[in-house]
Amino acid sequence: MVTIAMISDLRSRKISNRLILCGYAICLVKAVGSFSPATVLEVLWNLSVPVIIGYFLYLPGVIGAGDIKLLSIISGFIGLYQTGIVALIALLIGGIWSLILLLQNRVLEKNMFAGICYIWELMQGNMIRYRDLPVEREQLTIPFSVCIALAVYAVVVIYGR
């Protein structure tokens, strides 16, 4: 599922809601198949927490909605703890990839200044979206699902799930 989402994101820069719904359905069928109400509640909780936390990252434009929903599905399959590890590894991969792009395009200073201005605005209580800052976006955005997929593969190797 993660691989399909990654390919979709690479091709169209979107993760299909049909794919997301399939992922949710598989998680719920698996939970109901356990015949344990506690398992169903745990899976529902695991699906919900990444969406709730991710919503606050989506509002300012830090992460896309598809990436949040993808992390939610991952959480439904492997649990919150491992999903937290996936998110941290994905952020590390994404940060390195973004730094390389900024250096290649020679816009590191400009974007660092925009980031500092963004943080300053937030500290002043002004809610602005990061994606609305005056920086060149097209060649600098990354398909974060690739980072998520690589992180999932790493966690699966480490934890064997």
Q: Could you characterize what this model shows?
A:
Its main location: membrane. It holds the Pfam family Peptidase_A24. One of its GO terms (cellular component) is plasma membrane. The chain has one domain. The protein is built from seven helices and no strands. Helix 2 runs antiparallel to helix 3 and helix 4 packs antiparallel against helix 5. It is globular, with a radius of gyration of 17 Å.
Tell me the count of domains: 1
Percent range for β-strand residues: under 5%
Mean pLDDT: 86
Query: What is the makeup of the main sheet?
Result: none
Strand and helix order = HHHHHHH
Distance between the termini: 14 Å
Overall 3D shape: globular
Q: Helicity, in percent? A: over 70%
Please, what is the oligomeric state?
single chain
User: Helix/strand/pairing class, anyone?
Assistant: mainly alpha
Tell me the Rg in angstroms.
17 Å
Helical segment count: 7
Which stretches are low in confidence, meaning pLDDT under 50 for 5 or more residues running? Answer: none
Number of strands: 0
